[in-house]
Amino acid sequence: MLDTETKRRIDTCRDILVGKVPDPKSQVEQITIALIYKFMDDMDAEAEELGGERSFFTGEFARYGWSKLMAPGLGGHEMLSLYAEAIQRMNENPGIPPLFRDIFKNAFLPYRDPETLRSFLKEINSFSYDHSERLGDAFEYLLSVLGSQGEAGQFRTPRHIIDFMVEIIDPKKDETILDPACGTAGFLISSYKHILKHNSKEYREQQDREAYDEKGVAIEELPIDNPQHYSGDLLTPDDRKRLAENIRGYDISPDMVRLSLVNLYLHGFTDPHIEEYDTLTSDEKWNELADVILANPPFMSPKGGIKPHKRFSVQSKRSEVLFVDYIAEHLTPNGRAAVVVPEGIIFQSQTAYKQLREMLVKGYLVAVISLPAGVFNPYSGVKTSILVIDKRLAKQCDEVLFVKIENDGFNLGAQRRPIDRNDLPGAVRVVKAFLQQGEVAEHRNVLAVSRERIGEDAEWNLSVDRYVITQALKSDHPMVKLGELFDDLKIGGTPPRKNEEYFGGGIPWVSIKDMENQRIITKTKETLTPEGVKNSNCKLIKAGSLLMSFKLTVGRTSFAGIDLYTNEAIIAFEQNDKVDLQYLSYMLPAAVNQDPSANVFNAKSLNKAKIKQLVIPLPPLEVQKEIVAEIEGCQKIIDGARQVVENYQPRIPIHPDWPMVELGDVCNIVRGSSPRPKGDPKYYGGPIPRLMVADITRDGMYATPQIDSLTEEGAKKSRPMDKGSVIITVSGNPGLPTILATDACIHDGFVGLRELDEKVVPEYLYYSLLANHAAHGAQSVGAVFKNLTTHQIREFKVALPSKDVQQEIVEDIQGEQHLVDANKELIQLFEKKIKQTINRVWGEG
User: Higher pLDDT residue, 599 or 417?
Assistant: First the structure.
């Protein structure tokens, strides 16, 4: 596992470079080159210590040795010239193996600032090559900053999705493993670790101890294997040699090839097999097959499409089609594969997509796993699925398993923060049970569908929702099509935009934007003239009608608060005596989700005819009204509570008579420190807690360090602080305060306040500092200062009333925050109640 100090060092390297090298990919390349440079010198030094000779820095290249570079008397410009020359010439060094020469190919220093280089190399100097798994983890963390790779549709696959796919495919020690679009080799590394795990005595004994009955357990509830490193001690030397030879990767980008080579090397591969190769346009390797293929190939094609060779079964210029074809066709007779695909592969109606799906269903495909739309956030919101391929099993099994993943252990926001709902571990068990025993779990998001049924309409549609969700409809109420409830559904229109005289006439005209924040629409962003209405397909919508968007954003609802017109992306339902429109508004989003053709990812195929085919549960009218009253009662509570949560900020009502004091006048401010060398077990990993910024963001006012720790010797070289001390961040998120809930040490990213004047209440000071932080934005004074100095913090001004008044203010704020927390709980509780009510109507609760 990646230790926090190594992570910090990598983050520091990036922080040093960011001013001169803003591109994350270039930062990764510079750090990679510097690390390999340092590690080669470490290996030379180790050879000398063991009685051998240097091999990397000898002859004319001896002048580039790391110790020469870091010599105390070397000037800044001399260091810069020596380092720049060294990395440019290193691929000519006859003493280094071809792998290292490839890494230094075309390397150069993209800046000429001696101080930046000196700071950067000083941080690199703290790394050492120790042949441990830790370095591999560190490099994988460095690669994690490579989210999006330009415009080629390449997005880094999240580690937990990679591991999920590898666990399902279960590669073996004697199988050949290929990634034909390997990027940074994430799938190959995960496969290697998987094989080590399954060939470790410790893991097998653990499996024997933890055997349990899985029958009847919901897929969300099954456990996850603890992530840890396994030695692979049951592998023989021949096994290890064969394994290293069997793991291969291709990539079209020389930069990605370089990063893959380093990644594999740092995971113990002395001669990794990664080649620069265009899988789609070159057929040199067409006859090379693999037992296991794992990939997340590029989704996008260049303008004009790919120009592939002629050996593909499906003729296309779309990269996603060609890659899936390639993977299917390059498996051995018993081969297996898992590949991430965009939604176009799942349901697009163009000929090449249908031909590919037909080929897969008839001879390759065994499972389709739908992933949540935000898995690739923040780099892309693209919706993806995983296709599981097994050539042998596909010929023996008449069904394809469909699984819908609703939660992958992280929320779907830009930050992808961890949550406590995770369907992936259970999905592994479900899919494996189907692949190995033909068992199909009883779950609303799992269904086996016959190959005949998939192909019955010649579309070969692989949308999970098409099969899984419709199977789950078990309402106690009759299911009725919307077309049976409404004789006429009105869809609007747009007059020609080139005629300016059609717009701005004051007649309300609704677009989807008007529906974003208005439950009842009384005003619109755009209006029409009478001529505009006449020269469009607009139809008058009466006040009280229900509006639903069915293009772009599908299933959003609002009510017409006045008579109005709409554009062609909105359909209107007018009141009748069969269904209550308020009730319908709560049922429509669920109804839309029942039909994949109405899904937001396939919005172009939704039209009036398909809307009429949507079904809803229809209880008697009086029951509908009772359901509406129940939901709206909950919604009123949510709206009120949300107002409290969104508008609350702790405020200190400063009186003009209160004295303003500088922070340095009421305490002794000390800067944190870290023992050197960082990561040294003599100093790190002991029983004494060490505060990190993540502890503050997690805990808030009272922080308990849980992430990092020091030994007693390390604490002597750090900055110990007592329980109850006020601590302030000086970098990262400068100005953020906390109060230590226990004795702990602080590093140089903090200052601690010692000898606080007894007339200052620590909690009052905390709220004063927090208010200052909030008043200046998310980074407080960091909006002005990138990092804070101790001097700047000493000059912070704080209003200081009497101690009794401070205590009263603290008690008032804490009372307010209890109320805010209670309102947050109310929102969660009543949102859950609304969902339960709707699910109950649909027969799912």
Answer: 417
Angstrom CA distances, 83 to 152, 153, 356, 708, stand at 33, 35, 52, 34
**CA-CA distance, 362 to 457, in Å (whole number)?**
15
pTM over 0.85: no
Q: Are the C-beta atoms of residues 535 and 495 closer than 8 Å to each other?
A: yes
DSSP lists the bridge partners of residue 739 as: 702, 726
The interaxial angle of helices 76-89 and 114-124, nearest 10 deg, is 70
Whole-angstrom Cα distance, residue 710 to residue 690? 7
Counting Cβ atoms within 10 Å, is residue 208 exposed (0-12), middle (13-18) or buried (19+)?
exposed
> Which value, in Å, is the radius of gyration of the alpha carbons in the chain?
31
Structure confidence at residue 542 (pLDDT): 94
Are residues 380 and 148 in contact, defined by beta-carbon separation less than 8 angstroms?
yes
**Buried b vs exposed e over 381-399: b needs ≥16 C-beta within 10 Å?**
ebbbbbbbbbbebbeebeb
Query: How many angstroms separate the Cα of 696 from the Cα of each of 700, 702, 821?
Result: 5, 8, 18
Longest dimension (CA), the chain: 95
Mean pLDDT value of segment 762-774? 87
For residues 719-729, average pLDDT: 94
DSSP string, 598-632: GSGGGGGG--HHHHHH-EEE---HHHHHHHHHHHH
Q: Which residues of 8-22 are buried (b: 16+ CB within 10 A; e: fewer)?
A: bbbebbbbbbeebbe
Return the percentage of the chain with pLDDT > 90, whole number. 44
For residue 506, how many other CB atoms are within 10 A of its CB?
9
Phi, psi of 490 (to 5 degrees): -95, 130
DSSP H or E stretch at residue 752: strand 750-754
Phi, psi for 797 (deg, rounded to 5): -105, 135
Confirm if 345 and 353 have CB atoms less than 8 A apart: yes
pLDDT score of 303 more than 80: no
pLDDT for the residue numbered 415: 66
Cα 53 to the chain's mean position, in Å? 46
Across all residues in the chain, what is the average pLDDT? 84
Question: What one-letter code names the amino acid at 576?
Answer: N
pLDDT at 305: 57
d(CA 402, CA 422): 18
| Whole-angstrom distance, CA of residue 305 vs CA of residue 316 | 9
- Judge whether 537 and 491 are in contact, CB under 8 Å: yes
Contact between 486 and 478 (Cβ < 8 Å) = no
Q: How many CB atoms lie within 10 A of CB 174?
A: 11
- Which whole number is the average pLDDT over 98-125? 89
Residues 640, 637: Cα–Cα separation, whole Å: 5
pLDDT tens for each residue of 577-621: 999 999 999 998 888 876 544 433 333 447 888 888 888 999 999
Per residue, what are the HEC states of 679-746? CCCCCEEEEEEEECHHHHHHHCCEECCCCEEECHHHHHCCEEECCCCEEEECCCCCCCEEEECCCEEE
DSSP per residue, 150-163: TTTTEEPPPHHHHH
φ/ψ of residue 83, rounded to 5? -65, -45
SS3 505: strand
